[in-house]
């Protein structure tokens, strides 16, 4: 039975390892992609879960959130070792061993006995952004400002339309396709659910009234997550640097201390861009259920 919003929100608010992707609001947004909710509460532990299809629908299973984002079980306090062990057995029973649970590195559930895969994101302590930023990025940002590039919240319909145009253009430009391509209805759902709740925001960089770059940012307790930063094909030099720097400035005013640039697997240029801000790698873990066909397919795909 799906978990009620109020107790989920209460536990998420208090859970020290809960990410933005473990919130009930984010889970409501992902309904746009995977409509079958399988979330459950067990002994005070809430698990965001949706039924998914793999291998063009030939395999079914369960996933704690969309690929590449840490969610996983949350609770008011850290459960003892026996409860955590029993939790994994409960999940095994409910899913038949066909599950993908994406965890942040500080989750107490991370030492499961099942197979694991890692994905790496880039994290920066916002208070160190000016000290750690490379000369290359700093010079680019200053040139953008001198050229008249500026950043605004993306609150208008025309901002959203410009963001979606750049998102679709970026998909065509990227040599490595992301793990999932999201429809416009999904981003519209973010606007309707997360933005009014102050749990997310769109930001846009402009020059001469023309969009240069854009980003969707999600807000957790102390961490902001950049999710799908995009740019125009002919974007002004330094617009993306100014965009990210401004987002971090705004996040700091909210009491946010960390900025997560997001994973960029097999995208060396994107990874280098993040590292020039001073961001460092952080490992995020996926626990893979033991069901043979399901796990074999996922692990093979993850290695590609």
Give a structural overview.
This protein is α+β, with helices and mostly antiparallel strands and 304 residues long. The protein has two domains: 5-114 and 289-303, Aminopeptidase; 122-280, 3-Layer(aba) Sandwich (Aminopeptidase), CATH 3.40.630.30. The chain has helices spanning 5-14, 24-30, 81-95, 129-132, 135-146, 157-173, 184-193, 239-253, 268-275, 292-303; strands spanning 40-42, 45-47, 50-54, 59-63, 99-103, 115-125, 150-153, 200-207, 210-219, 223-231, 258-260, 280-288. The longest helix is centred in the middle third of the chain and has 17 residues, at 157-173. It is globular. The model has no long low-confidence stretch (mean pLDDT 93).
- pLDDT average, as an integer? 93
Radius of gyration: 19 Å
Main sheet properties = 10 strands, mixed
What strand order characterises the main sheet?
A: 3-4-5-12-6-11-10-9-8-7
Order of helices and strands: HHEEEEHEEHHEHHEEEHEHEH
CATH class of the largest domain: Alpha Beta
Continuous helix count: 10
Low-pLDDT residue spans: none
- What is the CATH homology-level superfamily of the largest domain? Gcn5-related N-acetyltransferase (GNAT)
Could you say what the CATH architecture of the largest domain is? 3-Layer(aba) Sandwich
Give the helix/strand class: alpha+beta
What is the first-to-last residue Cα distance? 35 Å
Helix content: 25-40%
Number of domains: 2
CATH domain topology of the largest domain = Aminopeptidase
Strand content: 15-25%
Count every beta strand, where a strand is a DSSP E run of 2 or more residues. 12
The 3D shape can be described as globular
